[in-house]
# Entry
Amino acid sequence: MPDTRYILFYDYVADILERRAPHRDGHLAQIRAGRDDGRILMAGPLGDPPHGAAIVFKDRASAEAFPDSDPYVTNGLVTDWQVDSWAIVA
# Structure
């Protein structure tokens, strides 16, 4: 039986690089806290320049709750987000 993780995908505003500075420390602190307590396994931006992000969680509830307090979401830098399951087979 595969091991399942949950990926939170973000879509960013087009000018994320110009707008993220006031919210970046809070966003990264929330990611570090999740990593430190074991909820988050890995995270990072997608694309160069970034057009979104992926954050891998151990459980669905944590993945779905994360955007509620993420400064990138609460300050309008994320245009859409979704959680998808990821069945790890290797």
